[in-house]
């Protein structure tokens, strides 16, 4: 039942926020905060009481091992269940969702002033949908939650967003986001149905259950087509160049909380989807596709970095850096070694922290300066209290400074991918230099250089300071002692590696060594 | 439990206190925290070093915790102390402490001292982690950490955009080298299955034959990292611009410690280089080229800090030369003496700069030797050591040892380069001292120079000056157990004496020529370089052989062009074609909705006719 509650709590909290609107603006905020804190507390409780230690992985037999499972029939005729299950990977990502949910509520405290109740309804429903995505192992249910998160996100951007320059309106950004993700979601639905029919043709019964569908024997070409259906859906969300077009617009136009959710969690649902579905369901096809996927990752690293350098809007810059970072994640996923996969997990968590940190900081900048255009900034160091110092720290994290979790994530991915695909790693490493270029460019344009005016802006208040300090603390904690996290996801990742790695025996890819 | 971790924890604590104080500490307290943390670290180092030496040189290894554990990948946060790291530890904390002390005088009245000491302490902590790390991943942490602090301190005076860009350049160029180092780490881990330095050195000869391609590649990649950090050809362009930072920063980071990290790294990984003799030769070659290139460049600078920057490059070139012929101990010995006399020179330069109201161009200085006796003395002693004046200076002993090892290795060409470099060193050193202190004061700032006073100003200069004389050369780093002996270790004899005499003659001769040239014949010299080919040559040297311009054309401009071409996200525009297409279709189709009944009726009839036709033809 705990799993069901994990999903229901945000939805119920959202409804309460909506209704509490009539009692003033403050009540919805507190309800939302309390909801996310409860969610986080439950997740942490599950974490402490469960055993996710790596030791379990060694005995990984044929049956999938879930730490918790909950199941109820939904549409028995088609074999559709409400089937939820939790392992280390989903646990970590749900904890992340809870934490970033708290931050999203906190950073909207003074930013959102209109329709506060409805705003929090949308915010919490996004989070509820995301938790559903992380828990569902019935493919129909998964698709349900996958589509479910889009709608409130659309409203979040369309109703509370900022309108950018050059005719970039928030409605346009929201529509673009919706069409991109909706269209790709349809592809995934087709792929899911294709898989179900293939299973039906083989066994004579309809089922959407993950464990059953995994056993479906598929011809090589069918597997490839179905895998591509999943891949494209996830690739849009990750995002993978060339399917990234929605991301910069959505980020730039979304309110801060929306950006935090987008960068922090929504992008991670894509990586999760690849790890949970695309790879395990179609190991051979994925293995054959790996060179392409890694190449796309490389393109993402370079394209994102180059575009980040050319932006004037600080949020667009950060959005493009996300594309570059997700390129590393894509490479790590398709390298498929234990080291690389663990690096992917760490990278996802690290990027969630650092990108959210940067987005919250640019939100705070916007609240003080009234602009996100970097041409109107410069020389802000010394005029903004501790904000520039925090910017520096998160910029350092984003460029992969050792000591931060981002460094370990990137390096684990690269260490893990090197034996499999050395040339990919060589090229990707150049991305480390590009990361330094765009990160420091941000510092230089915003905080250094001649000041454009005298006088100081308001320093961070306690809420903002505590928010940034705790994010920073987490970045450093997981940068210096990531073991609790890695131990939690170890079993789940070696499962992925086992399924995916078994396929690699039959196919050889970009290997440098025989 | 050894006190060793305290050496880096104390400066780290200093950083944390300064950072988290959020302006609650006054300038005085900030300086006190900043200096005390490094001072205490120096005391701990002294204690640890004394224990180490009295224990007969037993190495210490401390593992604080396992950083990451995934399968075989188990790097730790672990420190190890041996003769080499102890030497570095002593330099970093000892010289570092003196520089911090001097910085209190130098930075007084600056509004941002909290930031300054926070960065400086973080630098010391990172540098200590770099030299103490027992595995390459932790070394890399320190390696990048010092890079970040270097960036922050070069751009310390952030209001001037140029400083920020200098810092930017320094970080990016060194990061380029760091990528090579990172690739080296990936390769070493794949081939040897460990990142522990001791184990790597033990396993490498078992796994690889001498000259194996993996060993060569690993050595090359490590070298790439070292080149960036130590500002050697071709990744040297950042160091001269790095002088934008406060002068104590230049002394600490860009002379005594960080820039020598590359030398440390190669010495530390000597076992890999031993398996790749060709790469080692390349190290020597790069060192020789850099020392000549930078020597000429130093000759043609007018900013006193830029002279010193190029001289640093040149001296590190000597260290690379020594490494390249397998004389690791000589390289580290020169690293140590260089840290003493170059820190002295930079601090003296700092004293001149502050006394002359932030004037640092030789064309506007001069005639200062009576007004600023202590910095003048510092320049004389430091300059003598730099030019390696025989017997009385520390620099003579270390440089002589390098030259001897090069000769013993049978590298005649490289020896010539080293001797030529010695002449250049004498020339630019004398030119620097004459230009700064002699002649007439060439600007109001120089005429109104106020000498610095106080213990904070004087003590660091005096101590460093003492260490720059032959007294400093008496400090023998305990390296024999760690680093292999050089090629000339057991062949001291007539050859060595002869070479020492030759080197002494070269250095003295250089000084004599330089005094004649830059003092007695200075007007003649000025006329000579006024136009024609000497002027062009002078310009070429002044721009340090035009590397900056070339790199600008080769890398920076294409990159910026690419950014400009892409900045509106071309791929996104391409995908928007789909949206445009559906919009165009919409326009086309809605154009048929005219509301004219006759058109609708005729279209309908035509449609029916078409369908019937198809049916008939198929039927």
TrEMBL record, chain A:
<feature type="domain" description="NADH:quinone oxidoreductase/Mrp antiporter transmembrane">
    <location>
        <begin position="136"/>
        <end position="433"/>
    </location>
</feature>
<keyword id="KW-0812">Transmembrane</keyword>
<feature type="transmembrane region" description="Helical">
    <location>
        <begin position="183"/>
        <end position="202"/>
    </location>
</feature>
<dbReference type="GO" id="GO:0003954">
    <property type="term" value="F:NADH dehydrogenase activity"/>
</dbReference>
<dbReference type="GO" id="GO:0048039">
    <property type="term" value="F:ubiquinone binding"/>
</dbReference>
<feature type="transmembrane region" description="Helical">
    <location>
        <begin position="317"/>
        <end position="335"/>
    </location>
</feature>
<feature type="transmembrane region" description="Helical">
    <location>
        <begin position="464"/>
        <end position="481"/>
    </location>
</feature>
<feature type="transmembrane region" description="Helical">
    <location>
        <begin position="420"/>
        <end position="443"/>
    </location>
</feature>
<dbReference type="GO" id="GO:0042773">
    <property type="term" value="P:ATP synthesis coupled electron transport"/>
</dbReference>
<feature type="transmembrane region" description="Helical">
    <location>
        <begin position="341"/>
        <end position="361"/>
    </location>
</feature>
<keyword id="KW-0472">Membrane</keyword>
<dbReference type="GO" id="GO:0016020">
    <property type="term" value="C:membrane"/>
</dbReference>
<dbReference type="InterPro" id="IPR010227">
    <property type="entry name" value="NADH_Q_OxRdtase_chainM/4"/>
</dbReference>
<dbReference type="InterPro" id="IPR001750">
    <property type="entry name" value="ND/Mrp_TM"/>
</dbReference>
<dbReference type="GO" id="GO:0012505">
    <property type="term" value="C:endomembrane system"/>
</dbReference>
<feature type="transmembrane region" description="Helical">
    <location>
        <begin position="262"/>
        <end position="282"/>
    </location>
</feature>
<dbReference type="Pfam" id="PF00361">
    <property type="entry name" value="Proton_antipo_M"/>
</dbReference>
<comment type="similarity">
    <text>Belongs to the complex I subunit 4 family.</text>
</comment>
<dbReference type="GO" id="GO:0015990">
    <property type="term" value="P:electron transport coupled proton transport"/>
</dbReference>
<feature type="transmembrane region" description="Helical">
    <location>
        <begin position="116"/>
        <end position="137"/>
    </location>
</feature>
<feature type="transmembrane region" description="Helical">
    <location>
        <begin position="288"/>
        <end position="310"/>
    </location>
</feature>
<feature type="transmembrane region" description="Helical">
    <location>
        <begin position="381"/>
        <end position="400"/>
    </location>
</feature>
TrEMBL record, chain B:
<feature type="transmembrane region" description="Helical">
    <location>
        <begin position="331"/>
        <end position="354"/>
    </location>
</feature>
<keyword id="KW-1133">Transmembrane helix</keyword>
<feature type="transmembrane region" description="Helical">
    <location>
        <begin position="83"/>
        <end position="104"/>
    </location>
</feature>
<feature type="domain" description="NADH-Ubiquinone oxidoreductase (complex I) chain 5 N-terminal">
    <location>
        <begin position="67"/>
        <end position="117"/>
    </location>
</feature>
<feature type="transmembrane region" description="Helical">
    <location>
        <begin position="249"/>
        <end position="267"/>
    </location>
</feature>
<dbReference type="InterPro" id="IPR003945">
    <property type="entry name" value="NU5C-like"/>
</dbReference>
<dbReference type="Pfam" id="PF00361">
    <property type="entry name" value="Proton_antipo_M"/>
</dbReference>
<dbReference type="InterPro" id="IPR018393">
    <property type="entry name" value="NADHpl_OxRdtase_5_subgr"/>
</dbReference>
<dbReference type="Pfam" id="PF00662">
    <property type="entry name" value="Proton_antipo_N"/>
</dbReference>
<dbReference type="InterPro" id="IPR001516">
    <property type="entry name" value="Proton_antipo_N"/>
</dbReference>
<feature type="transmembrane region" description="Helical">
    <location>
        <begin position="455"/>
        <end position="475"/>
    </location>
</feature>
<feature type="transmembrane region" description="Helical">
    <location>
        <begin position="409"/>
        <end position="434"/>
    </location>
</feature>
<keyword id="KW-0812">Transmembrane</keyword>
<feature type="transmembrane region" description="Helical">
    <location>
        <begin position="279"/>
        <end position="300"/>
    </location>
</feature>
<feature type="transmembrane region" description="Helical">
    <location>
        <begin position="170"/>
        <end position="189"/>
    </location>
</feature>
<dbReference type="GO" id="GO:0003954">
    <property type="term" value="F:NADH dehydrogenase activity"/>
</dbReference>
<dbReference type="GO" id="GO:0012505">
    <property type="term" value="C:endomembrane system"/>
</dbReference>
<dbReference type="GO" id="GO:0008137">
    <property type="term" value="F:NADH dehydrogenase (ubiquinone) activity"/>
</dbReference>
<feature type="transmembrane region" description="Helical">
    <location>
        <begin position="139"/>
        <end position="158"/>
    </location>
</feature>
<dbReference type="GO" id="GO:0042773">
    <property type="term" value="P:ATP synthesis coupled electron transport"/>
</dbReference>
<protein>
    <submittedName>
        <fullName>NADH-quinone oxidoreductase subunit L</fullName>
    </submittedName>
</protein>
<feature type="transmembrane region" description="Helical">
    <location>
        <begin position="570"/>
        <end position="586"/>
    </location>
</feature>
């Amino acid at each position: 039942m705990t799993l069901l509650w994990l999903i229901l709590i945000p939805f119920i909290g959202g409804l309460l926020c909506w209704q509490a609107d009539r009692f003033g603006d403050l009540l919805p905020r507190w309800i939302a905060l309390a909801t996310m804190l409860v969610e986080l507390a439950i997740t942490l409780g599950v974490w402490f009481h469960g055993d996710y230690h790596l030791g379990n992985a060694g005995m990984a037999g044929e049956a999938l091992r879930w730490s918790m499972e909950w199941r109820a029939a939904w549409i028995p005729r088609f074999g559709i269940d409400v089937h939820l299950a939790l392992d280390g990977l989903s646990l970590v990502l749900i904890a992340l969702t809870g934490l970033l949910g708290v931050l999203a509520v906190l950073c909207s405290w003074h930013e959102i002033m209109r329709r506060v109740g409805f705003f929090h309804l949308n915010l919490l429903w996004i989070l509820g949908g995301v938790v559903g995505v992380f828990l569902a192992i019935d493919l129909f249910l998964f698709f349900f939650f996958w589509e479910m998160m889009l709608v409130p996100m659309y409203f979040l951007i369309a109703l509370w967003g900022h309108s950018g320059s050059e005719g970039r309106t928030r409605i346009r950004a929201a529509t673009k986001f919706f069409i991109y993700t909706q269209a790709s979601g349809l592809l995934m639905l087709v792929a899911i149905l294709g898989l179900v029919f293939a299973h039906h043709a083989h066994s004579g019964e309809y089922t959407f259950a993950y464990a059953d569908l995994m056993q479906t024997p598929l011809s090589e070409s069918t597997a490839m087509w179905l895998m591509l259906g999943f891949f494209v859906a996830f690739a849009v969300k990750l995002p993978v160049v060339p399917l990234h077009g929605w991301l910069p617009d959505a980020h730039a136009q979304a309110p801060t909380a929306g950006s935090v959710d987008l960068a922090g969690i929504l992008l991670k649902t894509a990586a999760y989807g690849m790890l949970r579905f695309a790879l395990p369901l179609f190991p051979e096809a994925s293995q054959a596709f790996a060179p392409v996927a890694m190449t796309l990752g490389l393109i993402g690293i370079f394209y994102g970095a180059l575009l980040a350098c050319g932006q004037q809007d600080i949020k667009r810059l950060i959005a493009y850096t996300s594309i570059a970072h997700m390129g590393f994640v894509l490479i790590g996923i398709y390298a498929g070694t234990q080291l690389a996969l663990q690096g992917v997990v760490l990278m996802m968590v690290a990027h969630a922290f650092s990108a959210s940190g940067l987005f919250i900081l640019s939100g705070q900048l916007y609240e003080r300066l009234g602009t996100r255009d970097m041409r109107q900034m410069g020389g802000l160091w010394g005029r903004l209290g501790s904000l520039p110092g925090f910017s520096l720290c998160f910029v350092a994290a984003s460029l992969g400074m050792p000591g931060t979790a981002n460094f370990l994530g990137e390096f684990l991915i690269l260490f893990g991918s090197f034996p499999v695909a050395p040339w990919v790693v060589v090229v990707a490493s150049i991305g480390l230099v590009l990361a330094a270029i765009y990160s420091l460019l941000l510092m230089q344009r915003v905080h250094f250089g001649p000041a454009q005016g005298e006088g100081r802006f308001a320093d961070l208040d306690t809420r903002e300071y505590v928010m940034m300090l705790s994010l920073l603390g987490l970045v450093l904690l997981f940068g210096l002692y990531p073991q609790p996290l890695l131990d939690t996801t170890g079993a789940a990742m070696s499962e992925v590696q086992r399924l995916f790695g078994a396929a690699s025996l039959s196919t050889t890819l970009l290997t440098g060594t025989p | 439990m050894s006190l060793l971790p305290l050496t880096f924890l104390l400066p780290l604590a200093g950083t944390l206190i300064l950072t988290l104080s959020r302006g609650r500490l006054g300038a005085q307290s900030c300086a006190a925290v900043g200096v005390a943390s490094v001072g205490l670290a120096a005391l701990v180092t002294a204690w640890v070093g004394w224990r180490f030496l009295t224990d007969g040189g037993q190495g210490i290894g401390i593992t604080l915790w396992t950083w990451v554990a995934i399968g075989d990948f188990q790097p730790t946060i672990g420190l190890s102390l041996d003769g080499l790291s102890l030497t570095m530890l002593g330099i970093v904390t000892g010289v570092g402490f003196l520089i911090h002390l001097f910085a209190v005088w130098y930075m007084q009245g600056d509004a941002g001292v909290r930031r300054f000491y926070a960065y400086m302490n973080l630098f010391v902590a990172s540098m200590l982690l770099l030299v103490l790390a027992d595995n390459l991943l932790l070394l890399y942490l320190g390696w990048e950490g010092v890079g970040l602090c270097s960036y922050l301190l070069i751009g310390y005076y952030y209001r001037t955009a140029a400083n920020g860009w200098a810092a930017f350049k320094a970080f990016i160029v060194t990061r380029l080298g760091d990528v090579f180092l990172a690739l080296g780490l990936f390769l070493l881990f794949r081939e040897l299955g460990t990142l522990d330095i001791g184990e790597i050195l033990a396993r490498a000869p078992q796994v690889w034959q001498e000259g194996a391609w993996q060993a060569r590649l690993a050595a090359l990649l490590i070298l790439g990292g070292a080149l960036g950090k130590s500002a050697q050809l071709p990744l040297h362009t950042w160091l001269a611009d790095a002088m934008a930072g406060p002068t104590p920063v230049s002394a600490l980071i860009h002379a005594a410690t960080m820039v020598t990290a590359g030398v440390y790294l190669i010495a530390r990984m000597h076992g890999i280089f031993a398996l790749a003799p060709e790469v080692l030769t390349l190290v020597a070659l790069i060192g020789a080229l850099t020392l000549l290139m930078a020597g000429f460049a130093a000759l043609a600078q007018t900013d006193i800090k830029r002279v010193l920057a190029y001289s640093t490059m040149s001296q590190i070139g000597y260290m690379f030369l020594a490494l390249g012929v397998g004389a690791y101990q000589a390289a580290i010995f020169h690293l140590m003496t260089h840290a003493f006399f170059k820190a002295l020179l930079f601090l003296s330069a700092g004293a001149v700069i502050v006394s002359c109201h932030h004037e640092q161009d030789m064309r506007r200085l001069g005639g200062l030797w009576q007004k600023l006796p202590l910095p003048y003395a510092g320049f004389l002693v430091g300059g003598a050591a730099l030019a390696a004046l025989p017997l009385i200076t520390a620099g003579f002993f270390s440089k002589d040892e390098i030259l001897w090892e090069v000769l013993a290795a049978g590298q005649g060409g490289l020896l010539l380069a080293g001797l030529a470099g010695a002449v250049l060193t004498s020339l630019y050193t004398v030119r620097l001292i004459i230009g700064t202190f002699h002649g007439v004061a060439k600007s109001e700032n120089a005429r109104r120079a106020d000498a610095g006073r106080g213990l904070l100003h004087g003590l660091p200069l005096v101590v460093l000056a003492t260490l720059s004389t032959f007294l400093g050369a008496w400090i023998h780093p305990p390296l024999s157990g760690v680093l292999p002996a050089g090629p000339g270790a057991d062949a001291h004899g007539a050859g060595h004496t002869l070479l020492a005499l030759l080197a002494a003659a070269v250095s003295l001769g250089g000084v004599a020529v330089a005094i004649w040239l830059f003092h007695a014949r200075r007007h003649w010299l000025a006329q000579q370089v006024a136009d024609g080919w000497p002027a062009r040559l002078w310009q070429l040297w002044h721009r340090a052989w035009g590397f900056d311009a070339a790199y600008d054309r080769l890398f920076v401009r294409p990159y910026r062009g690419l950014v400009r071409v892409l900045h509106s996200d071309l791929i996104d525009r391409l995908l928007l074609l789909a949206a445009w297409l559906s919009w165009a279709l919409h326009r086309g189709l809605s154009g048929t909705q005219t509301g004219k009944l006759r058109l609708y009726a005729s279209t309908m009839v035509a449609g029916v006719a078409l369908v019937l036709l198809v049916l008939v033809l198929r039927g």
